[in-house]
């Protein structure tokens, strides 16, 4: 009796150890590059911590108090949320439309799929350069379009009204390929017989879309939306290169503020506190989306 | 009334011709089964009737109206797919209601029809479930229910039972037969299972490589196959085909010399002369153990005892394989040579091209009286 119990315990121990052995490589990376820096970030955020040098003083929650009282910070938060609120719906909607339009097995559709995906592999520098040229009020594509219509060209990136939408357009153009591919993969999972059955059932194209296609894409939808929210809340490169946060701070983003606080002003403690805030926002947003998705299932 | 007529119907996929000018009449209330080997065009033909494939040539009429260009939903046909094709995000009831909602039917009428179909198929307790939460057989019933509520002129089935296990297949087969009687509906049913074909059909259509080989009642195909293809396709195990030469022409038929003995076949000798090569067809169930020196000498290779019957797999003189079905108590052993006798009236005779020679009236006597 007791020997049987101890044998069972031995087996469980052996299974646990072999599981650990399989997990070890990943676990090491996980601890080294995720858990440790994350913990360190929290630790640093309780300090007045200079990037270079050895000045490190424990100041408790002061960084957080400063942060919540800092209008610069709130401005960046607002800009970032505005940017995400404009980009994510456009990105998701447009990616779905493109996927629907390109979900056909002809050579032309294949070529178009490849073209739309290509912008995805360009670096942020290339993408922003292209768009700075396109948006240039002197010789840009859009400026010429305006002139040919007899309109005065707009200096998009120098306008507090238009700089943000211009960055949104750039970002959508840059990132549309990946969500489009995810939607295409989702569409290709839907058995063709369902549409045939729907044809026999006299379903209009709209009914087929709302009753078969959309429900089948729900999981893809949630995935794309979460990835987009996480990605777009970290907007940085486009702003830095295209506007530098201007004009008059109208496009300054949170990550940009974190970057400048940490690496230009050397206030690593304060920057860490803001990073943690951004993390919490992204975490809450993702969980909320997952929760909503569960509810409807 | 619901009769379907196909006139010289053809289908091309690019340069490939999948269906060659098929003519077929399906009468009101008839249960027609399309059978044939994989890739012969059964599904293609059915899908053309459904309106899911375009028609490359010829004409399909439903109640004397040409429907070539009528969209699938407007033809008054319902189809049950092999993989059921139930809408995964709808409950069983919603699946059935979908087609009716689309034509703007009143809610009470929809509910009445669903309730009626549900009681016919005994699926009341499944109505609020999604397909995910059902077994294969239950999904099959919902798929049939979805067809029934539309009250179609013609039901089309594309191998509806092939995803079910053997026992369930038999049960559903019987239920479909009952359904046909109860609904008085015209049904066209595709299968490659010849037992399904034999048991369900009023009329079987045997297809091969996009052409109709023969159309007839199950017993017609069994007793008077038009060629070796149909002879081999209908009946299980397959009919044995043995090459031979005409040895004599008698008042009763033709005597054929095979590599393992002489057989008399009650078939019309039309156009045959002594010495001509012919093919003899004998079904395994028509063979029996005869007196030594009689009929065919078969070398036994494998004996399968199934209890009620014994299957004997052997070869004859020229190496042709033959299957013999004997009763359960037959004394046969591997390695021995047994004399197999065949009644002349049970044999079939084919030309070397595989065309059947007509069986004599004596051979056909009583076969269709059942
Ligand atoms: N979309 C298509 N494009 C090209 N060829 C096709 C297409 N659909 C079917 N075919 C060809 O047409 C022929 C008939 O196909 P079909 O699906 O009707 O066969 P089937 O008799 O239903 O076979 P199975 O018993 O395997 O279902 C096959 O040779 C097939 O390769
Ligand atoms: Mg098929």
UniProtKB/TrEMBL annotation, chain B:
Gene3D superfamilies: 2.40.50.100, Nucleic acid-binding proteins, P-loop containing nucleotide triphosphate hydrolases. It is a peripheral membrane protein. GO terms for molecular function: ABC-type maltose transporter activity; ATP binding; ATP hydrolysis activity. GO terms for cellular component: ATP-binding cassette (ABC) transporter complex, substrate-binding subunit-containing; maltose transport complex. Keywords: ATP-binding, Nucleotide-binding, Transport. It is found in: Cell inner membrane. The keyword ATP-binding applies. The keyword ATP-binding applies. Residues 4-234 form the ABC transporter domain. It comes from the Bacteria. It holds the Pfam family TOBE_2. Belongs to the ABC transporter superfamily. This is sn-glycerol-3-phosphate ABC transporter ATP-binding protein UgpC.
């Amino acid at each position: 009796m007791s020997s049987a119990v101890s044998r069972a315990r031995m087996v469980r121990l052996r299974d646990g150890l072999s599981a650990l052995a399989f997990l070890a490589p990943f676990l090491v990376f996980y601890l080294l590059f995720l858990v440790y820096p994350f913990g360190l970030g929290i630790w640093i955020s309780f300090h007045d911590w200079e990037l270079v040098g050895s000045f490190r003083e424990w100041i408790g929650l002061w960084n957080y108090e400063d942060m919540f009282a800092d209008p610069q910070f709130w401005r960046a938060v607002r800009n970032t949320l505005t940017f995400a609120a404009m980009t994510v719906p456009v990105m998701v909607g447009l990616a779905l439309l493109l996927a629907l339009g390109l979900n056909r097995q002809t050579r032309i559709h294949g070529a178009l799929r490849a073209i739309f995906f290509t912008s995805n592999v360009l670096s942020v520098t290339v993408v922003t350069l292209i768009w700075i040229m396109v948006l240039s009020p002197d010789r840009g594509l859009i400026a010429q379009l305006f002139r040919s219509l007899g309109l005065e060209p707009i200096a998009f990136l120098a306008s507090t009204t238009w700089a943000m939408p211009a960055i949104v357009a750039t970002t959508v153009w840059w990132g549309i390929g990946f969500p489009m591919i995810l939607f295409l993969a989702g569409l290709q999972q839907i058995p063709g017989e369902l549409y045939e059955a729907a044809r026999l059932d006299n379903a209009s194209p709209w009914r087929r879309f709302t009753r078969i296609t959309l429900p089948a894409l729900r999981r893809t939808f949630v995935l794309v939306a979460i990835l987009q929210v996480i990605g777009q809340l970290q907007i940085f490169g486009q702003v830095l290169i295209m506007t530098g946060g201007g004009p008059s701070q109208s496009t300054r983003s949170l990550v940009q503020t974190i970057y400048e606080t940490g690496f230009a002003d050397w206030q690593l403690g304060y920057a860490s506190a803001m990073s943690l805030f951004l993390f919490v926002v992204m975490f809450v947003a993702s969980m909320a989306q997952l929760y909503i998705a569960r509810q409807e299932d | 009334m619901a009769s379907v007529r196909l006139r010289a119907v053809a289908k091309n996929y690019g340069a490939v011709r999948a269906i060659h000018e098929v003519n077929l009449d399906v009468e009101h209330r008839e249960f027609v089964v399309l059978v044939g080997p994989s890739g012969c065009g059964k599904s293609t033909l059915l899908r053309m009737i459904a309106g899911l494939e375009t028609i490359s040539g010829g004409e399909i009429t439903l109640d004397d109206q040409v429907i070539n260009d009528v969209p699938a939903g407007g033809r008054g046909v319902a189809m049950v797919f092999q993989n059921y094709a139930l809408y995964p995000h709808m409950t069983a009831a919603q699946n059935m209601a979908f087609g009716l909602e689309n034509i703007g039917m009143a809610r009470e009428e929809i509910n009445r029809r669903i309730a009626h179909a549900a009681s016919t198929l005994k699926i009341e307790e499944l109505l609020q479930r999604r397909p995910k939460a059902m077994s294969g057989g239950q999904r099959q019933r919902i798929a049939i229910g979805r067809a029934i509520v539309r009250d179609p002129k013609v039901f089309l089935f594309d191998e509806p039972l092939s995803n079910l296990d053997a026992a369930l297949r038999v049960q559903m087969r019987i239920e479909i037969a009952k359904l046909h009687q109860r609904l008085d509906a015209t049904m066209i049913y595709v299968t490659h299972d010849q037992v399904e074909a034999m048991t369900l059909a009023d009329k079987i259509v045997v297809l091969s490589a996009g052409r109709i080989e023969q159309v007839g009642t199950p017993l017609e195909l069994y007793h008077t196959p038009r060629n070796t293809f149909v002879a081999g396709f209908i009946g299980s195990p397959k009919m044995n085909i043995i090459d031979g030469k005409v040895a004599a022409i008698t008042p009763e038929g033709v005597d054929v010399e095979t590599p393992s003995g002489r057989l008399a076949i009650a078939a019309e000798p039309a156009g045959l002369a002594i010495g001509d090569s012919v093919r003899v067809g004998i079904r395994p169930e028509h063979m029996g153990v005869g007196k030594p020196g009689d009929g065919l000498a078969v070398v036994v290779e494998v004996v399968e005892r199934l209890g009620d019957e014994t299957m004997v797999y052997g070869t004859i003189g020229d190496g042709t394989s033959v299957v013999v079905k004997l009763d359960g108590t037959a004394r046969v052993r591997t390695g021995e040579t047994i004399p197999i006798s065949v009644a002349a009236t049970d044999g079939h005779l084919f030309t070397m091209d595989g065309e059947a020679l007509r069986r004599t009236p004596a051979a056909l006597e009583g076969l269709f009286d059942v």
